[in-house]
Design a protein that fits this description.
Blueprint lengths: L1 H18 L3 E3 L5 H18 L6 E5 L5 H8 L3 E5 L9 H7 L4 E7 L11 H10 L3 E5 L19 E3 L2 H4 L14 E3 L11 E5 L2 E5 L19 H37 L16 E3 L11 H10 L6 E2 L9 E3 L7 H19 L4 H4 L12 H6 L17
Parallel strand pairs: 2-3, 2-4, 4-5, 5-6
Antiparallel strand pairs: 1-7, 6-7, 8-9, 10-12, 11-12
Helix pairs in contact: 1-7, 2-3, 4-5, 7-9
C-alpha cells in the first residue's frame, strides 16, 4: 500500500501547487460528485459556526449541475444574470448578498468560454458577508500553469482529472473529481484522508481521527487508475508543459473562432475566448436550418457534433472546444468542413440537413421520446421473408 499511498500523496502535492490551495479531497469520483463534496464542506463549515444559511447564488451561464447540487443540499438557488459581454457583474452579485447566502458557484473560465476578469472583486464581496466561493473546475484545462484559483479567492473547486490531466474532453470515463479546499474549509474535508509521518503515509479513515470531517463520499479513496494517469501526465509534461497545454487549448479555440467568424455569428462580439469558442444561431436565420440540423449534418462529415443549446444564455448555442490535443492540420480540416456546411445552409440546401445524418449506422432519433420512453429490453425482431423466397 505504501507505493500507492505515496503516489496519491504526490498527486495531492501537485494539485495543491497548481491551484494555490492548501488541501485536497481525492475521493470524489467525477465533476458533479466533486461539486457535492465542495458544497458539503461549505455547509459543514457554516454549521461549525452555528449558521444555517439558505441561499446559493448561481450565474445564469453556469453548468446545470451547479443549481442541482445546491438544491440537493437543501439550498434555495438565486440566479445572477450575465452582462451583455457574457460575464458576471460584481454589482449584480452584491445586490443579492446577505447573511442568508451560503456560497456562490461560479465557473472561471465560464461556460461562454470567457475569463471572468472581475472574479477577485466577486470573491471579496462574497467573503465580506461570511459566505464561501465555490469555483466549478470543469474548465481548469484553460488556465493550468497560468492562474492559481487560490490566488483569486476561491474556497473550493473540483478538478476533472480525467479531462484536465488525461483524456481530451468527451473521451468518456472513468472519471475522478478531486476537490481543492482553502484553509477555511480544509478541516472539513471528507474521509478518508492522507497523513504523512515518520512511518510513511497512512489513510485516516475514522471520524475519531478526522474530527471535523463532514463524513465519507464513497467507500474507498477514489479512482486509483485515474490518479496514475493524471500523475503520469503531470510528470511527462512538467510545469512548463502543462502551461503550454493550456496555452495551446486557448490558441486552438481562438484559431477556430478567427477562421469561422465570417461564416458563423459570435454572440459576445469578436473578443478573445479561452479554451472554447461559442457561436449562436443568428447566422442561420431564414435558412430553414436549425442548430440541431447543423450538428447532425456534422456526423455525415465524420465529426462528433459540438455541444449544442448550451449555455442557455445564448439562443441556439454551438460551443466548440478543440482542446490542446488537436494539430493545426486537423483543425484546418474541421474548419473546412464547417465552412462547407455553413455555405450549404446559406444557399438553401436544406435537404442536406433536414434528416441528417444520412450515412451513420443510425439515422436521426426522436431524442426527447427516447429519453422519456426508453426501450430497456431487446426483443427479437419479427421474421421477414427474403425476396428470393
Amino acid at each position: 500500500m505504501q507505493g500507492a499511498l505515496e503516489l496519491i500523496g504526490e498527486l495531492r502535492r501537485w494539485l495543491c501547487e497548481l491551484t494555490g490551495m492548501p488541501a485536497v479531497a481525492l475521493s470524489p469520483k467525477a465533476g458533479a460528485h466533486g461539486e457535492l463534496c465542495g458544497m458539503m464542506a461549505i455547509k459543514a463549515a457554516l454549521a461549525a459556526r452555528g449558521e444555517t444559511r439558505s441561499i446559493v447564488l448561481v450565474p445564469d451561464s453556469a453548468h446545470g449541475t451547479n443549481p442541482a447540487t445546491a438544491a440537493l443540499l437543501g439550498y434555495r438557488v438565486e440566479s445572477i444574470p450575465v452582462r451583455a459581454d457574457g460575464t458576471v457583474d460584481p454589482e449584480e452579485v452584491k445586490k443579492r448578498l446577505s447573511r442568508e447566502v451560503a456560497a456562490i458557484m461560479l465557473t472561471n473560465p465560464n461556460t461562454c468560454g470567457l475569463f471572468e476578469c472581475d472574479i477577485v472583486a466577486i470573491a471579496d464581496a462574497v467573503h465580506a458577508v461570511g459566505a464561501y466561493f465555490y469555483a466549478d473546475g470543469a474548465n481548469f484545462n484553460a488556465i493550468v500553469g497560468k492562474v492559481r484559483p487560490g490566488d483569486l479567492g476561491v474556497d473550493a473547486m473540483h478538478i476533472n482529472l480525467h479531462k484536465t490531466f488525461s483524456t481530451p474532453h468527451g473521451g468518456g470515463g472513468p472519471g475522478a473529481g478531486p476537490v481543492v479546499l482553502s484553509a477555511a474549509l480544509a478541516p472539513f474535508a471528507p474521509l478518508p484522508g492522507l497523513v504523512s509521518g515518520a512511518d510513511g503515509i497512512r489513510l485516516v479513515e475514522h471520524e475519531s481521527e478526522g474530527a471535523k470531517a463532514f463524513g465519507r463520499m464513497c467507500a474507498f479513496h477514489g479512482q486509483m487508475g485515474m490518479f496514475v494517469r493524471a500523475m503520469s501526465y503531470m510528470l511527462a509534461h512538467g510545469s512548463d508543459g502543462m502551461r503550454q497545454a493550456s496555452e495551446d487549448a486557448v490558441l486552438n479555440a481562438n484559431y477556430v473562432k478567427a477562421c469561422l467568424k465570417d461564416s458563423m455569428s459570435l454572440p459576445f462580439g469578436d473578443r478573445p475566448c479561452m479554451h472554447e469558442v461559442l457561436f449562436d444561431d443568428t447566422w442561420l436565420d431564414g435558412t430553414g436550418v436549425s442548430t440541431l440540423d447543423f450538428a447532425k449534418a456534422m456526423i455525415d462529415e465524420g465529426y462528433h457534433p459540438m455541444t449544442v443549446y448550451f449555455p442557455l444564455v445564448v439562443h441556439g448555442a454551438m460551443l466548440i472546444e478543440p482542446t490542446e490535443s488537436e494539430s493545426k492540420a486537423s483543425l484546418d480540416l474541421f474548419i473546412a468542413a464547417l465552412r462547407d456546411l455553413a455555405m450549404a445552409a446559406k444557399r438553401g440546401d436544406t435537404a442536406r440537413f433536414s434528416a441528417a445524418p444520412y450515412y451513420a449506422p443510425r439515422r436521426r432519433l426522436d431524442e426527447t421520446r427516447a429519453a422519456r420512453q426508453p426501450v430497456l429490453r431487446w426483443t427479437r425482431p419479427a421474421a421477414q421473408s427474403e425476396a428470393a423466397e
